[in-house]
Amino acid sequence: MSTDEQQLMLRTIFERGAESASQALSKWLGAEVRLTVSAVDRVELAAAAEVLGPPETLVAACAMGLSGPLGGRMILVFEDRSGLALIDLLLNQPIGTTTGWGDLERSAAMETTNIVGCAYLNALAAHLPTAGSDSAELAPTPPVFFHEFAGSLLEFALMDQALELDEVLLVRSAFSASRADLKLDWTLLVVPDRPTLQALAASLSS
User: Could you tell me which of 170, 13, 176, 182 has the C-alpha nearest to residue 77?
Assistant: First the structure.
C-alpha cells in the first residue's frame, strides 16, 4: 500500500466505512451525527503517539482486537473532554455534566467503539480476497478501555504489535453533530498485522 493510487483506494474504503458508521452512530446516539475521513496515512509506530497530541495530554481510548479475515488491532482515541461530551450526548444531558470515567461511562465508550469499529471493519473486509467465503466472518474482540496520557497509550495498547510492525495506518476522522455545542476530537488508529497488510495490498493492486 505504497502507491498514491492504492492510498486513494484505501481512503475510499474507509469513507464507505464512515458512511456506515454515521448511520449506526446516529441510531445509537439518537441524534444526527456524521463521520468523515479527512486523511488516511501510514505513519511510523513511534510517530503515531505524537498524532494524539502532546505526551501529557490525557486521552480515553478503546481498543478492539481483530481476527478472521482481518488481523491486528483497531483503537478509537478520544481527547478526554471530547469523550466525556460524547457520553453526555448519549445520556441526553447538558454537555459538561459528565466529569469522570465510571463503569457506565466506560461501557458507553466501548459500545460506541464497537459500533464505529465494526462499520469500518465491514468496509475493509469487503475488499479482502476472502470476502464472501464462509471463513470471512469478522470476529472483533470486545473493546478494552484505556485512560492514559497520550505519550504512553500506544505503549500499553500496541505492546504485541510493536514486536512485529514498525508502522500503523492512521485514519483521521472528523465528527460533526446537529448540536452546535458538541465538538468532538477523536482519532482512529488501525494496526493491521502483517498478513492483513499483505492481503490489502494484493487486493488493492488487482
Answer: 170
Domain of 127 in residue numbering reads as 3-204
pLDDT in tens, 88-133: 988 888 889 999 999 999 999 999 999 888 888 887 777 665 544 4
Residue type, 74: M
- Residue 195 has a CB neighbour count (10 Å cut-off) of 12
Radius of gyration of the chain (CA): 16
Look at residues 165, 112, 169 and name the one whose alpha carbon lies nearest to residue 143.
112
Residue 114, CB-side half-sphere exposure with 13 Å CA sphere? 14
CATH number at residue 83: 3.40.1550.10
26: nearest Cα among 119, 142, 126, 131: 119
pTM of the model: 0.80
CA-closest candidate to residue 35, choices 27, 46, 23, 45 = 23
- Separation of alpha carbons 19 and 108, rounded Å: 21
Please provide the distance, in angstroms rounded to a whole number, between the alpha carbons at the two ends of the chain: 12
For 15-143, list the strands marked E by DSSP: 33-44, 58-66, 72-79
DSSP for residue 100: S
The number of distinct structural domains making up the chain is 1
